[in-house]
Amino acid sequence: MGFFVEVVIGGLMAGVLYSLVALGFVLIFKASGVFNFAQGAMVLFAALSMARLSQWLPQWLGFESLFLANVLAFIISAALMYVVAVLVERLVLRPLVNQDGIIALMATLGITYFLDGFGQTVWGSNIYRIDLGISKDPLIILESVFEGGVLVNRDDILAAFMAVVLVSVLAIFFQKTATGRALRAVADDHQAAQSIGIPLNRIWVIVWAVAGFTALVAGMVWGSKLGVQFSLATLALKALPVVILGGFTSIPGAIIGGLIIGVGEKLAELYLGPIIGGGLENWFAYALALVFLLVRPQGLFGERIIDRV
Amino acid sequence: MFYRENGQFKTSYRSDQQVFPILQDKWAMLGLLVVAFVLVPMVASDYVYLALLIAFIILSLAALGLNLLVGYCGQISLGSAAFMATGAYITYNVVTRLPGTPLVLAMVVGGLAAMLAGLVFGIPSLRIKGLYLAVATLAAQFFSDWVFARVGWFTNYAPSGAVSVPPLHAFGLPVIEPWQKYLFCLTVVLILGVLAKNLVRGHIGRSWMAIRDMDVAAEVIGIRPMYAKLTAFAVSSFYIGIAGAMWGLIHLGSWEPLAFDITRSLNLLFMIIIGGMGSIMGSFFGAAFIVILPILLNQVPQALGIPISVATATHLEFMIFGALIVLFLVLEPHGLARLWSIGKEKMRLWPFPH
């Protein structure tokens, strides 16, 4: 039983990471109707810049503190993601306004390739570590409930904590600030928002910047757990089935969908893996999403699609 | 000045509806065929065959197949490499398990298997479209990666998952030397290309385009969306499967599951975006572009004496691809094919543009 709980917790932790990436998807999709294939590339780019800057800055400026290096690297990376957002809006979204969803999707494919190539040219293409200063010793909890207790990694706890903080910050931002209200208005109805004077272009920059920021957080957490490398971008593609499951327009959906997928694939690997062969994790999420698409295309929490084929 | 249709009067519907209504086009196409079938084999070296021509021809066919689905029917697919893999592995199994099966028959079987896979993964397209479909086809991609790596039957229980193909023969002729491979692939692509051209001119192609342009309106004028979409998936996957069989058996010779991963799918999609969506010719342009660009990126800096590492070249390639995709979508959504037809229009009027 302890083992089962461990697997579920492991799955939940993986799910948190998927949720973080999926969050970026949902934000952009809600505000601009663009299905952002590049979210994975943004995660990779942000993680690379974070990893390299936290390594380079102490050398350049001549200080030792790991904390300071991480904070500075985080701020600069966030600024970089803002620049990315501005450039994307200027060079890609604005000229493609009013085009089909498919065209925008393909454009984000282009952004994906560009960011992948650019990131690796600038930051290098080896495997890098992000050291957040957490010890790697696992914690053992719930010893009184299960025999031998349950192993939990410290960085997993940090990941979950950061996800909670990020979601709360986003929730406050969306509910309490004027900009957040404008973003929600745009998400509800582009035209109505524009007619009352909300500048769409600026909103897009903001929402891409926010998505870039969540990508940075996701990349940081993921990078500290698994190391920063190119495969991060492919792994982040799993956020696609997550948003299908949770619904394209729902932030709680992204989070719950991520957790379901995370746990589901770990359990599938555990119970189905021995029967039909290991490595299920790579496609289980997609198959689940496919089934969901056939049964409930709007996802768990999405708005009902009236658009029938 | 020379590219004029003055005086070429059409006196029957038949002559009005032909594939190349302008005489000069017909001659140009014939000339191209002569060059491809006679002149190229006389001058090309083995390197040119292996690095450029064969890859170009096969990828053109794959891009053509994808274009039928994406460009003509408007259904996006991010999983075309899965259908290539299906074609390749099934053909491989037919060739190795049933020795003596004609190669062309084996390829058709592979293509039909890919068609079946395409139909299965195309079923969601009946309920969902656009972005959702992209994820459904991604499922095909990752599922095929797994199946062909894990299920031993497909790789004939090869321990490393890599398969290699015995020497091939078609119609009693060997397909072993580069020039033989080239001519074989060229013939297959020519036949399938002509078929595709006629398919999209006919009833079925028109129903695809109607679905692409507006599915509700298409349904209203009596086109069955289910039939149109599934035929598009089937024909497209068949083409891609045949291309996959040729890519695996003829171009690569031996391959491992990674040969058909998501990068290949995206590459094919890029070909049709750059070449031109909804254009047979565009598929060829796009494939040529994507095959030649990496080679140029490797050769040009070397020729200029600029040291550039392989890794940097790869990253540059990524960046250039990405930038080009966006550039094409913004400036010329119909791709190189549109530029070509604009050029032809200009030629017709030259030197008196009014």
Oligomerization category of the chains in this entry: heterodimer
Kindly report the average pLDDT value of chain A.
82
Q: Helical content of chain B, roughly?
A: over 70%
Radius of gyration of chain B over all CA atoms, rounded: 21 Å
The total domain count of chain B is: 1
Q: Could you tell me how far the N terminus lies from the C terminus of chain A, measured between alpha carbons in angstroms?
A: 46 Å
Q: Would you tell me the structural class of the helices and strands of chain B? A: mainly alpha
Strand tally of chain B, please? Answer: 4
Structural class of chain A: mainly alpha
| Largest interface (CB < 8 Å) | A-B, 47 and 49 residues
- Strand percentage of chain A lies at under 5%
**How is the biggest beta sheet of chain A arranged?**
2 strands, antiparallel
Features:
heterodimer, A: 309 residues, mainly alpha, two-stranded antiparallel sheet, 73% helix, 2% strand, globular, B: 354 residues, two-stranded antiparallel ribbon, 14 helices, 72% helix
